Predict the structure of Adenosine deaminase.
Amino acid sequence: MEQLQLTFDEKWEIILACDSAYDDVFLTAVKTTKIYCRPSCRSRKPKKENVLFYQERKEVEAAGFRACKRCQPDSNQTPQMSVVSQVKTFLIDSYKQKVVLEDIARHVGLSAFYLERLFKQHTAETPRSYLEKIRVDKAAHLISTTSLSNLEVCYEVGFQSPSHFYHAFRKGKLCSPGEYRKKAREEGAS
């Protein structure tokens, strides 16, 4: 595999810009703190003369540096993806409750605006639409495996309004809850 050749000054400019496009290309180590980071790390920048660059994590760790706790370069996930995973877990665990964006933001320690932008950037959907998808999937499971009425299913999975439930279900499953139940029964009978 051909390695990307960047000069010291080019790498220095990349870390000053916090450019995440180079996170998998090289690591930045600081001699005075003995910490290494991703190029996109938002921590305070060191003096230029205290910086070393490494290609591989094992190289930098063998040289005696430890991973930054902020950008977590020793993790396969970026800190942003870690937040997205936390949000997904929170939504899956809380789907029955009334959840608003501020609750989610408070849970992960970010502003609501930044959280929604970050989540959408990494998943191509908003936390609200992701929660709705979870609720529709849970509803579909209940409809096909229980004898609960559609209205009971609606409230059981956390929808506050039957009309919103029917609209979301039709959008997610391309049929009404009643049609879904009928298909499930037909498939179960055959």
Q: What stands out?
A: The chain has a mean pLDDT of 89.
